[in-house]
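WARN retry 2 of 3 for item q-0093 after timeout on previous attempt; input resubmitted unchanged.
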Amino acid sequence: MNQPQALPVASPTFADAPTPPPDVAFHRLGVVAGSRGWRPLLVLLLAAVLYAASGLLLVTAAVAVDAITGSTVSDRVLALDMNDPYAFVSGFALIALMLPALLLARRILGPRPVGLLSSVTGRLRWRWLGRALLISVAVYVVGLTLQLVLLDPLTGVPLTAARFIPSAWVFLLGAVLLVPLQAAAEEYVFRGGLMQLVGGWLRHPAFAVVLPVPLFVVGHGYDVLGQTGIAVFALLTGWLTWRTGGLEAAIALHVVNNGLLTVMQAVGWADPNVTDITVPAFVASLVVQGLAAWLLVRSADRMGVQRTRPALAPLPAPRPAPAPVALETSS
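OK item q-0093 returned
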């Protein structure tokens, strides 16, 4: 008697591997980490809550010191006179608190690794950061020298002898300890979190670079020319972040800019409370920042600094297995 028998079912075969997806730029790293939709926004909102809570603790501590000692620390802090050491330390410390707030929020809500906020490698590239700091220091020192020797005399600004202001040691120490934290915090928030938030929704890097700029500008209190300079700085650091694949160059430029101003304040060459910016000073700052950015990009290219992160290629789709065929066998 003939009975039909089925051939063994063939294992599925796979199609040829698809073309690998393009590498991912810094502003799109949230997509690489699996963060789409509203999660990056929730991270920033949680960071804002954590930051507000830490700021409240700082203010409460100042009020408690006043109550215990009968001093006026809180009044001096709230006066926002940046020549006052209390206002300087509290102001920069308050901004620096944005960094742990953002990192903690990112760790709680994801996406992970948290290091993707730093660069396309998933970490802060310390060797590149060190070189970027050296380049920025060199450019700014040369720029300051030319300003003091050439620009100021041509524009009628008298050259005064350096003299330490009261409590200058606080500002010099702050330039080394507080300013780097303050500058890094702003870069992580505005060029890290916000750029990746925008990049999760809009693919083109121009949106991620430009859209956070107004939020950065409103945090400063200069005149129109000064605010324009702040906007240009934000655009430049945003572009550097995208172009070099991480925050290191932007952090270096920000640290050196603010650190040098703080040192100049300590020796009586700068007043942080001044909000009116002159045209020569505005132009000089643009030239210095532009030159520094150009040298940073050239150095990054020579070092082979990684600009993008490889995207995970999808697995090839399996081909359907052929249907079993029934055969007649003779008994």
